[in-house]
Design goal:
alpha/beta, Aspartate Aminotransferase, domain 2, Aspartate Aminotransferase, domain 1, 2 domains, seven-stranded mixed beta sheet, 13 helices, 11 strands, globular, binds pyridoxal-5'-phosphate
């Protein structure tokens, strides 16, 4: 039987043909496909301006430029995320202020956010882990009360909703990733949803060497921008993917529901909370490590023997060497540490068959029942 990876992109033949057209066109870097992709994304996000870049990390980096983060400015975020979320704050010279997660949603604890606000706080950087949205009502109530910017790291939550409204269609800055593992991809890429045309123009300068070009063929450089532009090759993939994102997410939801129906409580897994608002970017139970005779690495190895790929997203990041070097230690964020130590990502991607879920569950039953004490 084929190996079942934890995720795999779905690229249709029309998209592959359009990529070939771009390659034959003579213009393969940023051009008409990028413009079309940005226009289509703007439509997707309720008409707000959207600009694309070559990674989600790049979108976050430029967003921190836009809010004019100064050295020493504090940005409140979560220790349970992909390290990009925190690296970008350090990269911009800011000070990440980590607060623990809510053990139920596994997203940043908004009570802890409010308690961590100081006169140096400039922004909140929440992450919708696995696609489950952070409570936007409470988030923006806190931000408005304290005069803070919000940079939503929605890398994992494209297509998720909050009370019927699409994430990114309201609120402050919202960053998306089109990495190959995300709900839609451009191979690598990202986007920022912005508030107005002025922010979009500033974004364009930071995106490409600070350059502004004028109609008469002259140019000026007004700030020391970077090199973040997306190619038309990638944008062609994005245009093809955007047509399917709603169907992809609907399929993910059905597959997630099937996991809920098939996972036997006797196996001891702690399931994620069900949410109709989630795009089900990942399906992440927690292993009952205190009841198992094996650790997570051995569990992963045994599932692999059954032909099943399992991901780990993510160990609590403050326990990585670099962050320990900054003074972070065990037991500072107990909920993030507990989830980070026991989380597993089961296979979940739109091309999966219902029977693939059954296959994963059969393997889970065998591996877990054989290891429960
Ligand atoms: C994927 C991801 C990013 C970074 O996106 P890239 O496109 O890989 O740079 C940032 N934050 C979170 C939560 C992510 O999942």
């Amino acid at each position: 039987m084929d190996f079942l990876p934890f995720t795999r992109p779905s690229i249709d033949e029309d998209t592959i043909a359009d990529v070939a057209d771009v390659l034959r066109s003579g213009w393969i870097t940023s051009g008409p496909r990028v413009a079309a992709f940005e226009a289509a994304l703007s439509g997707y996000f309720g008409g707000r301006p959207v600009r694309v870049v070559n990674s989600g990390t790049g979108a976050l980096e430029i967003a921190l430029r836009l809010i004019n983060l100064q050295p020493g400015d504090e940005v409140i975020t979560t220790p349970l995320t992909w390290v990009a979320t925190v690296n970008v704050i350090l990269h911009a010279g800011g000070k990440p202020v980590l607060v623990d997660i809510d053990p139920v949603t596994r997203n940043i604890d908004l009570d802890a956010v409010e308690a961590a606000i100081t006169p140096r706080t400039r922004a909140i950087l929440p992450v919708d882990l696995a696609g489950l949205p952070v409570d936007r009502d409470r988030l923006y109530t806190i931000a408005e009360k304290h005069g803070l910017r919000v940079l939503e790291d929605a890398a994992q939550s494209q297509g998720s909703t909050w009370q019927g409204r699409k994430i990114g269609s309201f609120g402050d800055l919202c960053s998306i990733s089109f990495h190959a593992n995300k709900n839609m991809t451009t191979t690598e890429g990202g986007a920022l949803v912005l508030n107005n045309a002025e922010e979009a123009r500033l974004f364009e300068k930071w995106r490409l060497q600070g350059v502004t070009r004028f109609a008469d063929g002259t140019m000026d450089v007004e700030l020391p921008g970077g090199k973040y532009n997306l190619t038309d090759v990638a944008a062609a993939i994005g245009l093809g993917q955007l047509k399917h994102i709603d169907a992809f997410n609907a399929r993910r939801k059905v597959l997630a529901q099937r996991y809920f129906g098939q996972i036997d409580p006797a196996w001891g897994l702690a399931l994620p909370v069900w949410s109709d608002d989630s795009n089900w970017h990942m399906f992440q139970p927690l292993l009952p490590l205190d009841r198992l005779s094996i650790g997570r690495p051995e569990f992963l190895a045994r599932m692999k023997e059954h032909g099943i790929g399992i991901g780990v997203h993510y160990p609590a990041l403050h326990l990585f060497s670099y962050f320990r070097g900054l003074g972070y230690r065990e037991s500072m964020y107990p909920h993030a540490e507990a989830v980070g130590a026991s989380t597993i990502s089961l296979p979940l991607f739109p091309a999966m068959h219902d029977t693939d879920i059954d296959r994963v569950c059969t393997a889970l039953a065998s591996v877990l029942q054989g290891a429960l004490r």
